[in-house]
Amino acid sequence: MKVKGMRIGDLAKRTGVSTATIRFYEARGLLPAAARAANGYRDYDDHAVQIVTFIDRARRLGFSLREVGAHLRSPRDAGRKARLQAQLELKLAELDAHMEQVRARRAILAGLIEEIASARSDPEKPDRSLERARR
């Protein structure tokens, strides 16, 4: 359904992204170029709202613009949802791996804090905490 007169500022407000971001998506080919009104203003429809909302959500979930573009260009066939699900599962696995790395770093930091706290009571003891953290 065409929304008469939805200019770039209106699209930005409805999607929560900046007008510069919308122009960037257009320039990258992620968002089809908008029709132009007689006065030269861009004229967007509801489909543009859906696309920009999809791109923004995908970006917030960690997908690259390349990945987003690949999905937007993928054939709208019976396998599209399966391809999207596979990409989501891959992204979830990446996130799980990243979380495990963060947990490991957190454990090291917590150990260092504990070690330094106990060593503070003995000023003669050399501080080798960070040396052990590199291993």
Could you give a short description of this structure?
The chain is mainly α and 135 residues long. Helices cover 64% and strands 3% of the residues.
Notes on the structure:
The protein is mainly α and 135 residues long. 64% of the residues lie in helices and 3% in strands. The chain contains six helices and two strands, in the order H-H-E-E-H-H-H-H. A two-stranded antiparallel sheet has the order 1-2. The chain is elongated and about 80 Å long. The chain starts with 7 loop residues before the first helix and ends with a helix.
Key phrases:
single chain, 135 residues, mainly alpha, two-stranded antiparallel ribbon, 3% strand, elongated
The counted number of beta strands is 2
The unreliable regions are none
User: What is the C-alpha radius of gyration, as a whole number of Å?
Assistant: 24 Å
Q: Mean pLDDT, rounded to whole units?
A: 89
What is the succession of H and E elements?
HHEEHHHH
Overall 3D shape: elongated
Total helices: the number is: 6
Structural class: mainly alpha
For the biggest β-sheet, the strand order reads: 1-2
Distance from first to last alpha carbon: 61 Å
Largest sheet: 2 strands, antiparallel
Work out the helicity level: 55-70%
Strand content: under 5%
